[in-house]
Amino acid sequence: MERKPKPNGETRNLIFTGRGGADIIGLWGGDRGVNGEFFGDRGSDWGVGSIANQHLVVNMRTHLHHWMKLNFKPIKADGSRLFVHDEFNFPEEFDHVSDVDITDDVNDEYSTSSTSSTGDSSIPIHSEQVYGGDQTCSSIVEVHSIDGLEVWIPKVRDQVKPIVGQVFQSLDKGIEMYKKYALEAGFDVRLSYVKKNKLLKITLRYVVCNREGIPDPVQTNTLDSTPKKVRTTNIHRCGCRAGVKFKICDDGESFVLYDFEEKHNHSLFDEVSKHLLKSKRKLDYSQQRCYEAHSILCQLRGGYDKVGGTKVEYKNFERDRNCYIGDSDANLFVRKMNNRKLYVPNYSFEYNSDGGLLKYAFWADETAKRNFEEFSDIVSFDATYRTNKYCMIYVPFTRIDNHKNCVTLGTGILDAEDAPAFSWLLEAFIKAFGKQPKLDVMDQCPAIKRAVRDVFKESRHRFCMWHISEKLPSKVKHNVLSNGDFKKRFHALIWDETIDANEFEDRWTSLMTEFDLLGHKWLKYMFKHRNKWIPSFYRDIPMARLMRTTSRPESENGLFSQFFHYGATLMKFIDSFDSAMDKQRNNQRLLNHKTTTTLPKLLTPLPIEYAFHDSRNCPKRQEEEEEEDEE
């Protein structure tokens, strides 16, 4: 069954009744999101027991194929289980349609085809040029649909593809052949089943995709109070059946490949992510010794006497480099950034100088602009970090990505913390990105507030909660803060996203009265401007947890502090900035890789949770659970 395009917002209701008495109502529309809700016949919360007649409401939008992979089968009416997860087709359990006759509507909305167990449709999803040595091949991954299930078949060079009937002089050569094929195809392998004869010689060996097999089912026994080991890592295995099988030949030495399965039930690594394959993450001798420049040269060249210098000479290289730069630091910096603007696609660089002195600069590359397109609703910027020997202020524009990690959207350096400097920076931001964010988060610096008000006229403005929380110890008397109850209740109140504005005001007044702080000057000022920082006044804007976690500015500064140092030249600063961006973006690639190659830890044994596991982000889910534990 293939879905034809529908206008956004339009929905279709399907009601099926199975032999077990379970109704399934499927709704889907054009918006984003995957949500599932359960409703009991009696209007109460549903449980594991006595759930034969529950209604499953699946609100599926845009990504209909998630639901198409599911086959919801009512099992029994005794309350043991409601659904199992299987490949999508309409099983015999859904043997009649009740309440609504939708046959004509479905014929209008869908084109239906009968697919046999061996029939499939092939759709190439991407094609890339892969350059290896002197050979060039077109690496194409095809996605096939077999009985409603997607399978991935890699297209590789013929000379590396396994062939049934191939004979190898030894088992190791056969395994090495399959590893080379897997590396080019984009998946990892592992050794599986082995059979040996009475002489303990291997006669049969399976080599499979490392995502072969399924995790053990979650066992739950509420009567057993003994502590159980809890899995803390994500799950790699998803039941993939790709692999090869070798058996020994009659000569007792060579092995023949007698079975080859090339179809995978999961996506494969693309060229950008292939360096994350386990087979690629192995250090050779020289890489294992790369802990500092002088030591590696000693190891590579065979001794200290072969290097031609001591550690002192290597340290002095930085001194000589700074001497060479001299007074041309700003000129070299501007020239380098202008060259990037000229030769690097979609690179933005703006600067302002006065009397030959560099005052302001702003830059953003294509990746930063793509991040802004994806995560542009809320932007935070902080101007508290000084990065070079000229005491110029480093101002990163930050957003939280889908992994709840900081991503840098754009970067500026300023020689002053005044309104004209910040106004120039925000204008450069708009020029580079083409629009303003929906909400900007800033500290309480008067110059920043004025610049934001004058330039970001279409945005809503909010103070940074982290900076306000940091000021509390210096603003409130020690004898009050020493009372652990006040500090705990104060933070619980200001961070509470569930209460409305009226409830916040009542609880604030009650707290200030109890601790005799109604006349406190700073607290009165913060309460007067409560609509600028309290989450209760921003409930209409998805905060994307940007301000829910207090360590965002601290985390961003922590990243750059690993690379920047106070006495650096501008040339050294930009090199360090590039290194910091490489690390940040590599971490993002690692999390993307983890999300696509692992499954989240399930909290219940219910099949419906497993069925919808891929609609949640694995690293994000783990971090949410950790934050809940901390709270």
UniProtKB/TrEMBL annotation:
Pfam families in UniProt: FAR1, MULE
UniProt domain FAR1: residue ranges: 177-269
Positions of the MULE transposase domain: 379-470
Top-level lineage group: Eukaryota
Classification via InterPro entries: FAR1_DNA_bnd_dom (IPR004330), MULE_transposase_dom (IPR018289)
Name this polypeptide is given: Protein FAR1-RELATED SEQUENCE
Classification of source organism: Eukaryota, Viridiplantae, Streptophyta, Embryophyta, Tracheophyta
